[in-house]
Design a protein that fits this description.
365 residues, 7-stranded antiparallel β-sheet, 11 helices
Amino acid sequence: MVVLEVSATVIFYRYLALQILKASFMVLFILVAISLFFNFIQEMKGLGKGLYSFTELLQYLMLRIPINLVDFMPVAAVVGTTLSLGSLASTSELIAFQSAGVSLGKFIRAVAQAALLLALISMALTDLIVPYSETRAKEFESSNMMPRVSIHSRQGLWIKDEDNIVFIGQLFPDGNARDIRIDQLDNEGNLVSSISADKAVMRDSGWLLSKVKHTRLIDGEVTVAKDEQMDYSGNLTQQLLETLVVQTRAMSITDLITYVQFLKDNELDFAAESLMLWRKIYMPFSIVILALLALPFVMGSQRHGSPGQRILIGLFLGISYVVLNRILIQLGVQLQIIPFINALIPILVIASVLYMLFRARLMKT
C-alpha cells in the first residue's frame, strides 16, 4: 500500500508539473513573439544604414530571444500556473485530486517543483546564453551601423582606432575595461609599439590606464617601460564603447561580481550594479513565489471560470508583481537600503501576502 501511495504521489507531481510547464511555455512563446514583433518594427528604422540589411536584422532579433525569455519568465510562470490549474479546476480534476486525499501541501510542492524548473532554465539562460547572445547582438548593431571596425570574440573585443588596434579583454558599462592591449601601427601596417594595462577607467579625456607596460620597437631594438598610470586619449569615447557593451541586466552573475569588485577597487559608485547582482541571485525565488501566488486564486474558485478570466487573473498577478517590485526597489534606493536587502524586500512582501492567503484558506477549511 505504501508503494502504491508513493507511486500515485509521484504520478500526481509529474502530471501537475507537466501541465504547468506546458502552459508556461505557451505563454512564454506568445510574450516573446509579441516583444520581437515590436523590436522588429523599431529596428526597421535602421535598415539601409551601413551594412544593416534585412538578413542582419533577422539575426539580431534571433539573438534577442534569450534575454526576452529571461525577462518574461516570471510573468509566464504565474500566468501558466493560473491557466493550467484553472483548466484542471474547470474539468473537476482538482476536485478529484482533493477527494483522493491530495492535500494543499502536495499542491504547493507540485507547483513549486514546476516553478523551480522554470527558475533553473532562467538561471542557465542568464549565466550561459544571454551574455554571449547580447554581445553578438551588440556587434551586429555596432559593426553594421557604424563605420568603425569592431570584432567580438569569446576572449574579448578588438577595435580599430585610427592607427591603433585595441584589444579589450573585458569591457564594462560606462567605458571601463580590464586586460587591455593597444598595438600602434605605422603607415605600412608594421607594429611600432604595444601598450598593455591591467585596467582602464573612462575619464572625460579618455582612458586612464593602470599598471602599464609599454613596449617599443626602435631600429630593431625592443625597449620596455613600466608605469603605474598612463593616459590614452585616442577616439574611444564613452558613447562609442557603450554601443559595444551589454547592459548590466544582460551580464552573467560572475561578470557582475567582477564588475562590482572593479568599481569598488576604483572607488566608483557600485550601488546600482550591486542591486542588479542581488536581483539576479534572487530571481529563482521570485519565479517560485509568483507561481505559488496563483494557487489561492485558482483552487476552489475557477470551476466555472473561462480561459479569458484565468489569463486576466494571471496577468493581473504578474503585472502587480512587476509594478510592486519596481516601486519597492526604487523606494529602497531612495532610502539607501543595503542592495542585498533592497532586492529581497519585494520577495518578502509577496511571500507574506501568500502566507496570509494560504492561512485564510486553511481557516475556511
